[in-house]
Amino acid sequence: MGDYETILLDRSGRVGLITLNRPKALNALNSAVMREVIDAVAGLDADPGIGAIVVTGSEKAFAAGADIKEMADLGFADVHGRETFSGWDALTRARTPIIAAVAGYALGGGCELAMMCDMIIAADTAKFGQPEITLGVIPGMGGSQRLTRAVGKAKAMDLCLTGRQMGADEAERAGLVARVVPAAELLDTAMAAAGTIAGMAKTTAIMAKDAVNAAFETTLAEGVKTERRIFYSTFATDDQTEGMAAFIAKRKPEFNKS
Ligand SMILES: CCCCCCCCCCCCC/C=C/C(=O)SCCNC(=O)CCNC(=O)[C@H](O)C(C)(C)COP(=O)(O)OP(=O)(O)OC[C@H]1O[C@@H](n2cnc3c(N)ncnc32)[C@H](O)[C@@H]1OP(=O)(O)O
After folding, report:
1. For FRET with 129, which of 61, 110, 208, 237 sits at 20 to 30 Å CA-CA?
2. What does the record give as the reaction this protein catalyses (predicted)?
3. Ligand 1: which atom is nearest the Cα of residue 130?
């Protein structure tokens, strides 16, 4: 699947798997990686046969950040408004639920990429951080915004100002990570979770993702209204009819048949 140089693209049933594949550079995110990840996600997202996507890296690194060697000689005019930096936003426009399966380093742009996904499942070896300040820059892919919303000001400020790394258990306690598993079980756990999501009605999964994400974008009152509008909409779908009929008939629902 796909003819890529910096990522591997696989598929297992209704789950698409993207593996960042620049192991010698600890999966540093350069322009090629960004183009290829965005292209692969777009293709999976448009495929009605795909119900969930997993993005992962290597044992040592999910991604150790944006590619410092590619950025070192850039100046303001090179980066200001450059698609290369804002291009990652396309990931947050995907409708299909995306799980980041993180082992090892998820630093800078690597942590930001994981946070652009809908949930993070971490190996006990995972190390998260926004060490950009040590390079004389700050996060530039939403890290200061998503991290603060995920873990709160105190810990986000700590990580962005000190550049320190946060281990998997601290990340789970702080609310950045959904689950922590032994490293050897990471991919199986993430693929199983993705398989469960992909077994749900894709329309309903998209609606649930939109409702949760609305909490990031608005007030509680507005978020509750948004949720209610989406909840009402589920009763216009065949999925609600099938889901509730299946429960009453004591059988498994058959979603995504068409
Ligand atoms: C114009 C295009 C730019 C790219 C755009 C694409 C997308 C990016 C979007 C924009 C993002 C904006 C905001 C984000 C900024 C950042 O992410 S800045 C980088 C933040 N990350 C870091 O500061 C971590 C840097 N790495 C390290 O501190 C260490 O490597 C480590 C993770 C602690 C591991 O140490 P160690 O085990 O000792 O391994 P090393 O020898 O250091 O590394 C192995 C090789 O990997 C190379 N490498 C590691 N990280 C990067 C990196 N971020 N960029 C480039 N290369 C990296 C390292 O240089 C080694 O390579 P060799 O020396 O050739 O062996």
Report:
1. 208
2. a 4-saturated-(3S)-3-hydroxyacyl-CoA = a (3E)-enoyl-CoA + H2O; a (3S)-3-hydroxyacyl-CoA = a (2E)-enoyl-CoA + H2O
3. 20
pLDDT digits (tens, 9 = 90+) for 9-25: 999 999 999 999 999 99
Report d(CA 85, CA 220) in Å as an integer.
31
| 156 located within any domain | yes
Residues 222 and 117 in one domain: no
Nearest to residue 149, comparing CAs of 223, 95, 80? 223
**pTM, two decimal places:** 0.96
**Atom 12 (ligand 1) nearest CA:** 140
Q: Is residue 254 part of a domain?
A: no
Question: Are 49 and 149 found together in one domain?
Answer: yes
Average pLDDT, the chain: 96
Q: What is the ipTM of this complex?
A: 0.94
Catalytic residue among 114, 132, 171, 198: 132
Distant-in-sequence, close-in-space partners of 203: CB < 8 Å, separation ≥ 6: 237, 239
How many angstroms separate the CA atoms of 174 and 233, rounded?
33
Residue 89 has pLDDT above 90, yes or no: no
Do both 231 and 181 map to the same domain?
Answer: no
Supply the range of the domain harboring residue 210. 202-249
